[in-house]
Amino acid sequence: MLKRSWHDERGFSLIFVAIGLVAFVAATTLAIDVGMFMTARAQAQNSADAGALAGATALAVNSFTDRSAGGPAVQNAITAAKANIVMATEVSVQPGDVTFPLDSGGQPNLIQVVVFRTADRGNPLATLMGRFFGVETADVQATATAQVAPANAMTCVKPFMIPDKWLERTTESGAPSGPWTTTSEFNAYDTHGGSLEMPDVYVGAEDVAHYTGYTVANDVGTQLVLRGGTGDQINPGFYYSWKMPGDVGGDFYRENIENCNTSIVTWGTPIIQEPGDKVGPTIQGIEALIAKDPGAYWDSTCKCVMGSTFGTSPRVFPIPLYDPRYYADGKATGRVADFRVANFLGFFADHTSGNRVYGVITNVVGLVAPNAGPAPAGAFPMAIRLVK
């Protein structure tokens, strides 16, 4: 009897089944926790990405130089990162986790954000099944870096343009003869096309050391009144309509003021003036645009738009700036009105009155178009993108 029991193998199958079940359960529980960790890691990266982009946006729109713990870049980065929860729990991100490294060229245009769900921060991930094997928590963290750099292209530009800023007529010593104001007039030639002895001076954004045009540091918050241009006069507030890509006539001009034309416009692009009186359609388009976000207003304290129901108010838009010297040179040599994009200006449409548009110069975010060439160092708009 004992001999037969010793050689009876029928019970071993139960042992193998039990061992297999244990292995299967262990693998299943491991898969559950691994899947949770992978999801948490992806969510943590989303949180870090959101923080880096929000911080970069604040650098571009609020203040490029304020990098203090209480400044808009750091605070916006923290707020955005925490708003993106990881496995139903807020991440830990402190002012010290938001840093501003230099880029490969030594420029201070990066912002880096690190987010945590770790034991050291008191918010580790709790395992679902690992606790049965003595592993109760796990750590997850993520890092993201965004860049704020001069933009080489814009979209959603409006179908009217104004001249870039210049230095008023110079004296014999080369110094400006007076301050540039929003009522100044660019003059380089007399009425017969002859060069003036002391012409007004325009230097483009590619020469950042001598650039005379609009800059964020000097001009954000400046009030600007736009009105239809007359004749050949080059005045800061005189706008000229231009023929945008995809123009099909009819209400196209007005609709591209009220809405966004997604065509990409780059520096140096020649633009053709739209013939005809466009004052009426311009005012109609601006009023329709204002009606989309009626509660938005300009706050002179923060130099920003407040009260908007949008992330960025549609009442903030880029206006192409044309090169006043290029235009004046063309007119002096008998060329038909010829314009060239010199920069882009951010503008907040406040209200209209009669045939005038009242607004404020503001920051604006641009694009990095891969085939547009490098952006000029003096670009007014900044582009924001994740780089790591």
How would you concisely characterize the structure shown here?
By secondary structure, the protein is α+β, with helices and mostly antiparallel strands. It has helices spanning 2-6, 12-61, 72-83, 216-219, 252-258, 279-292, 324-332; strands spanning 98-99, 110-117, 125-126, 137-138, 140-150, 153-154, 160-163, 223-228, 238-241, 265-266, 270-271, 297-299, 304-306, 316-322, 339-353, 356-362, 365-366, 382-386.
List the helices and strands and how they pair.
Layout: H1 2-6, H2 12-61, H3 72-83, E1 98-99, E2 110-117, E3 125-126, E4 137-138, E5 140-150, E6 153-154, E7 160-163, H4 216-219, E8 223-228, E9 238-241, H5 252-258, E10 265-266, E11 270-271, H6 279-292, E12 297-299, E13 304-306, E14 316-322, H7 324-332, E15 339-353, E16 356-362, E17 365-366, E18 382-386
Parallel strand pairs: 7-14, 8-9, 17-18
Antiparallel strand pairs: 1-2, 2-5, 3-4, 5-18, 6-10, 7-9, 8-16, 11-15, 12-13, 14-15, 15-16
Description:
- This protein is of the alpha+beta class.
- The protein has two domains: 138 residues, no CATH class; 234 residues, no CATH class.
- Helices cover 26% and strands 22% of the residues.
- The strands form five sheets. It has a six-stranded mixed β-barrel with strand order 7-9-8-16-15-14.
- It is elongated, with a radius of gyration of 30 Å.
